[in-house]
Specification:
Four copies of one chain form a homotetramer. By secondary structure, chain A is of the alpha/beta class. Chain A contains eleven helices and 26 strands. Chain A has helices at 33-45, 80-91, 127-145, 147-150, 172-189, 206-218, 250-265, 293-305, 347-355, 423-429, 438-446, and strands spanning 2-5, 21-24, 50-53, 64-69, 72-77, 95-96, 98-100, 113-114, 119-120, 154-157, 194-200, 224-230, 232-238, 243-247, 274-280, 312-315, 339-340, 344-345, 361-365, 369-373, 379-384, 396-403, 408-416, 451-458, 463-470, 475-482. Chain A binds chain D through residues 67, 69, 491, and chain D through 67, 69, 491. Chains A, B, C, D: The active site is at 160 (proton donor). Chains A, B, C, D: Residues 10-456 form the Glycosyl hydrolases family 39 N-terminal catalytic domain. Chains A, B, C, D: One of its GO terms (molecular function) is hydrolase activity, hydrolyzing O-glycosyl compounds. Chains A, B, C, D: Keywords: Glycosidase, Hydrolase.
């Protein structure tokens, strides 16, 4: 049996980069009440710093319009909806990580679109008009929110231009040109505004090197590098409703990040901030893996280690209020969200909220847990038991040895595993109702809370020995704290006089 | 092993008398924010019909006052606070079950008081002024709330006059006289207003016979009989903080009620409604039994059966916002409440909320469970495993056999037992903090939710066989419902393609 | 000066048909948070019974889909969003008045669309598939909400098929055919479900006669007639942002309704319920008239009288969360809404909320006011001073004479006119900010409350004489109530001892 | 006519001492829901920093208790309620300004009490037990809230010991002794905790000199001086319900403060912070003046000027949830509160909320107004028209001349005067209902909002000339801001095409 001896003196690097940013379905969805309800819950429990999503220039927000004025088509910029959306983000203590794209239909040079919601992925028909769109949009943000605020918003140019379905022909030079005019326009508003790219997905990381050399050669401003990271393999099966894939090992993601980090280091911008503006296990919004405890346990290693490599990494996405594939066809459908429809928290939600309850100092971390200390000396641990195999008998036990100053220690534990806090499984037991009734929704919501255990433990020679047993794909949070016992202040207390006790 | 075969054809009597009324600490406490917070939660979850408490005429509400007007003391009736209190009740869908008492200091003939809050328990110094107080008070209720509303409020004269600490000398004739003038005054406002008594505790039930004969002989109006019922024995030990008692068998309470019911039947008012305006296990507000799972399991038989005998029975009380003994000295202190301070739900709270989720038709009930059916054919059961003995090994297993129309049945189960939904135990593990910090309160609150299990069960020949195992002092709620399986509508679904599943 | 003598004995017909139904922007907008915020406010203040809007089958709700299953396109019905929308309505005590349309793109026989949001207005390419769509949709409603609920929902087939922009070629026979198959499909689910049409706008009222004769001849079920009514003239000027029209006299609308009522009467269905499923002054969503006090004053006569003719009349619409012309380009833009963006109440909102405070018995009504009595004898009046002319000097004074039983009467008055509760005017004074800052929004919201006046009036011989003066385009609410004076109960009260008073 | 020329270059001293602290009824009332509702509203609108009230050691909070343990009376400290109260304050962003008193009954040397709620005003029977009480109480605060927090709480010893009704015999030496042992005990917990006195009312200001010399001589720690200030004359008439007094000139208060400031200056502690821990017009909680506009207008000079003299001045009190004289006998009863019962805002509430909307820079102040500038160059003014005479014709007009950079200026004005935002007057018109019905309460609440006016004003040569006319006892808030006119961006806009406009 594994044994871990925790020293209170260690101080292992651990930062909060895991909560710097969170992904969202296209921005237009932020007008929805259900979206806002999910977001409020998320921010109460986890409190991310930034939010990033597609669709800033999409027709459902409608920023760009051309109006016929006496026979001349005149650009008109409508900020009614984007103001409402950004107000919502800021009210929830989230700053926008602004992705500039896709192409407004009226500005597009072609008709290629992506997603159910048909984002146009072609270059601008008129670069001047694109520049004006960027200028008016960013200038409006500055006017409405103040320059001090907007200086804290990163502006990322486009999304995954190295894929043909996100950028016509995945034309690298066309992207660099778009980046150049966009970055220069933004800097013309204020030289300290942050702009970056190339927002690629993995696979053709030479784009990053080329991009930075392009910037260097052409003296194009660049404040950060962004890239995406998924660990899913090619699909085993695609069906009208589902997309099945296996995953690489969690360490594969860390390897990806390290390798890109190294690429950056070998350019003229060796210290440039590096943001993973999207990551997840599978890149498919219909892979049921996202709804599982396996997904939560899988990400434990990544949440605890990726921040050592990158400046931020943004889980794609916080909610299944999302429409890339289609309007959701069932409450559970393999969506990216930390929350399913009706704000039902999935196991991965708990992974994040457990991490949010860790202490400020890290004492230990490995492939299966992270151990931290709070200022009041409470020890807080998140541990996970990732099991790739099918079947049930996969409990794992680890012995923890932790020094304490008191004789007795109070244990508070929360957990999600295949049998607890697993609403996806409950929904299956119910017969997978597509459009559940209100009672069914209430029932599912009641099944999404972590299972709680408490105990009073005895130390020996000021050392606590605790056998931590985790069920299959469990993610568990443990708080061990010193007990200040006041029992003696209850005069005449005698529990033995109580019937049954 | 016990085996219960449930027939869907049975129709055993079961009514909602258990939720007709709930007890409260003295009415003046209803001004408190904490009180109102508890009340709102209670009514959301359980929704009682009436609420009854002491202290209508106490100084903290201050209805009765005498003002010096040019040298003459003139009665002044101040309804500022009682209006606020009754508004609060009605907003929460509770009607007052009005207890008329105790004696305003200015009207009292003596100085004897009861409780930490010093309710005066002596007869009026001036019967005329008492009549005027009753008249003005009830007339004000009618004016403010409308006669149609107030016709639904029972008016109960005094509280436990058969005890010397509640009524000077427990003077029966003095009580009958008080009752007579009070009842006549109320009826002078409207003949259909409801008035009753004698609100005695057990022990001297001949009061009831005498009272009804008195009313008959003197032609005094009487619309209901009220009495209290507790099942605790004489104290084993009293300490400054606690009061320890054993309890009689739960059936003892049913025996008490039946015997009084028979007494009433043998009077000139054989069919008079009979209300238990207070009941609980122990009558002491510092008996830790109230905080336990034992208390919850103990009351299962009573909640399921007492309504067969009486018109209502009112658990004493809904909340530990209560001050008869003292201001609460710790979050758990043996108070009567269904909720501890900070709105922490005790196990008995769950017993009530579980009962509230039963179906309309009762199919079966015995000493350990009640089985009901909903209109949609869901079977809902509340079961309990009352264990008087100390120690841990007291699981109980019962085999249930229930007919279903579908092959698969969905089970949803909630439970509270010594290890789950038992915040009193968590508080002990923490070292019984008297004035817990905000974090400790949050933690305790997080431990008060029922433990939830779900399952998908298979019937055999349309008969479900379920082994119900309950831990010590467990109270459990079970819903068994037919499954409408939609799994086949997910095109291409193949769970086996999912890693780990 | 006009003088009105109110008798308390009169009983003029007045019903609540004015609040039976309210119009809304396309149903998909009901997913928006801003929409729901407006709706909640509306229902708190006015409490309509039904809500009707376009777009049930539009792509943003996505009910109809065809999925490729092994090479075959198979219909799939997605109720995820419509369930959320109808849940929202019902939670706000609104039932859907279901408009069946427009045509899902996948089912359409042509490509003609209407509105910024591109509703397809062509007949079904396949009648069988339309029938199945209707069947599955209505059957789903019955399953989810229960037949007792859905029996109260009217189903209206299509919208304004007599206009070429709403129904390809305004083809009457094609509409009758659509109606026939739709009505029969609905009745196949339950014969008591309500179905009707033809939902025409004015102009070609012979459709109604033809429609009913068609139903009669072909034995097609029909439960109600629906039609729309606007009083605006042809446009004087259309600009990219605005649409200017004059209005006919308010009585023109009553004339329209009476004439259609007569048409119905002369068919085989003389007593068929007749619903005005849309009405307003102008039919343009960019006519600034909708933002004005003139609009409110104009509608006073209609709200007070139209219910004498029709079963319901539904103001088009409750909110400027609306996109027929475009995404709103400024907080005030001439939209139909009772509320502008940011839930700013327009003057017409107050007209409706004032009507909602009238008593149950109508004592008097004319072109300029309606006088009602509450059960407690309070007299409540809504009056309006509609002025077509420009300029400021248009006060109107009317003398009211009302009998009271007390000597003193308390007057409470709320009003909106050009100078009070007129946020449109404040917005103009501010320089018409398109995308107002949060402070500007707060300021505008603070200016939307009715101006309140109170007074204590003296009757003479139990007759109150009150000079009611209204400013230009004022709408005013007056409550006159008897005073129960308690001043004498304050012992020693002497206001003259108070400095300054 | 008065003319005021505002220069944008001036910078007159103006600080926020007026909102440093607010008074409250005894702390035990903070358990009430109505109290908390008022407090939340107050803090949303005005946001005071500290709150001060009597009754920390009163029996309704019950901190001090003596328990019989095996025959020995043992002190027990119960912090259940005070924790709840201070949690409430801190949640509402208020820190306690802790007044240490009065004497717990069990500790008292005598039986003299003050107020309806009977605060004991005698010295401790046992100084040691008082010290222990102080020690345990303050140490508990430190433990629960942290030393960093509690270091910001001033501790003030007792209340108005120079009055015989607040301190037995107004015994100065006894007070000094109490102060000494209290201050030393507090400093023993942490030397930086703040302690002060003597909390006297006016009349015998030599106490302050004597107190400081005593501290100096005996080396008793003292961190601040506190005193109270009222401007009312001896009563003209006292009745069972009311107390009538005239007031001195508002400048009288400033004179009082200056004179005490000078006294302090002439002691060994010349720079000691000086807090007015209570002030108001009348010191009687039944003087109707508190409900009037006169009271609001009277305090304008004091709010704008007293902060130049003292470190804080604390209006006595924020709410009529208050019981010194009695339980409130009517919604308006002359209570100190900024808010009447039911959270009805009185005119003085608006004075404070208007002050809260002033800019950071003061440009001008005099007897009748204060003129400030915001960072965005908006000019904000609070002005008042205090009229001592009876009768109605007391309008006052002042001409303001203010430079602006734009041609057009937007004016937003809020006001309260005898005819607007005067719920006391409405209540009189209604016949002074003592226990108003819910409808009457709703009506009164609807009458407590400031009356709003807006306008668009034209400058001449960049100078705005504005005639400010105020009605009797009006308090008015004015914001003048530059207009950024976007009217020209509405293409084709032509208001003249709109009927009626």
């Amino acid at each position: 049996m594994e044994k871990i001896i925790v020293s209170r003196e260690n101080d292992i690097p651990f930062n909060k980069h895991w909560k710097k940013c969170i992904g969202t379905g296209r921005l237009g969805l932020a007008l929805q009440k259900e979206y806002v309800d999910h977001l409020e819950r998320l921010q109460q429990d986890i409190a991310f710093d930034y939010i990033r999503g597609h669709g800033l220039f999409h027709e459902d927000i409608g920023i760009y319009k051309e109006i016929d004025v006496d026979g001349t088509l005149t650009p008109f910029y409508n900020f009614t909806y984007i103001d409402r959306i950004f107000d919502t983000f800021l009210q929830n203590n989230l700053r926008p990580f602004v992705e500039l794209g896709f192409m407004p239909k009226k500005l597009a040079s072609g008709t290629q679109t992506i997603f159910y919601w048909e984002g146009n992925v072609t270059p601008p028909a008129d670069e001047k008009k694109w520049e004006e769109l960027i200028y008016h949009t960013v200038a409006h943000f500055v006017e409405r929110y103040g320059i001090e605020e907007v200086l804290q918003w990163p502006f990322e140019v486009w999304n995954e231009p190295n894929l043909t379905n996100f950028w016509e022909n995945a034309d690298k030079q066309a992207y660099f040109q778009l980046y150049k005019i966009t970055a220069k326009t933004i800097k013309s508003i204020h030289p300290d505004l942050n702009v970056g790219g190339p927002a690629i997905c993995g696979g053709t990381d030479e784009w990053i090197t080329d991009f930075l050399h392009f910037c260097h050669k052409e003296q194009v401003p660049v404040d950060f590098i962004s890239r995406h990271a998924y660990t899913s393999m090619p699909p085993k099966k695609k069906t009208p409703d589902y997309y099945y894939q296996d995953l690489a090992d969690p360490n594969d993601m860390l390897t990806q990040l390290t390798s890109v980090k190294k690429l950056i280091h070998d350019t003229p911008y060796p210290e440039l901030p590096f943001h993973i503006t999207e990551y997840n296990t599978s890149y498919s919004p219909t892979n049921p893996i996202h709804d599982t405890n396996y997904n939560a346990a899988y990400l434990g290693k990544i949440l605890s280690h990726a921040g050592d490599i990158v400046s931020s990494f943004s889980y794609w996405t916080f909610s299944d209020v999302f429409e890339e594939f289609d309007i959701p066809r069932a409450p559970f459908h393999g969506g990216f969200g930390l929350m399913a429809l009706h704000a039902i928290r999935k196991p991965t939600y708990h992974l994040f909220s457990f991490f949010n309850k860790l202490g400020d100092t890290c004492l230990y971390k490995d492939d299966t847990m992270i151990v931290t200390k709070h200022r009041d000396n409470t020890i807080s641990i998140v541990a996970w038991n990732l099991i790739h195999d099918k079947g049930d008998n996969h409990d794992k036990t680890i012995t923890l040895s932790i020094p304490f100053s008191s004789d007795d220690v109070f244990l508070y534990r929360e957990m999600t595993n295949e049998h607890h806090a697993n609403p996806w499984r409950v929904w299956q037991q119910m017969g997978r109702p597509r459009f559940p009734s209100k009672d069914q929704i209430t029932l599912l919501k009641s099944c999404d809370a972590p299972f709680i255990q408490t105990d009073r433990l005895r130390t020996e020679n000021k050392l606590l020995t605790y056998q931590l047993t985790m069920a299959k794909n469990e993610v568990t949070l443990l708080h061990f704290s010193d007990i200040i016992d006041e029992t003696h202040t209850y005069i005449g207390l005698d529990d033995s006089l109580l019937t049954s006790y």
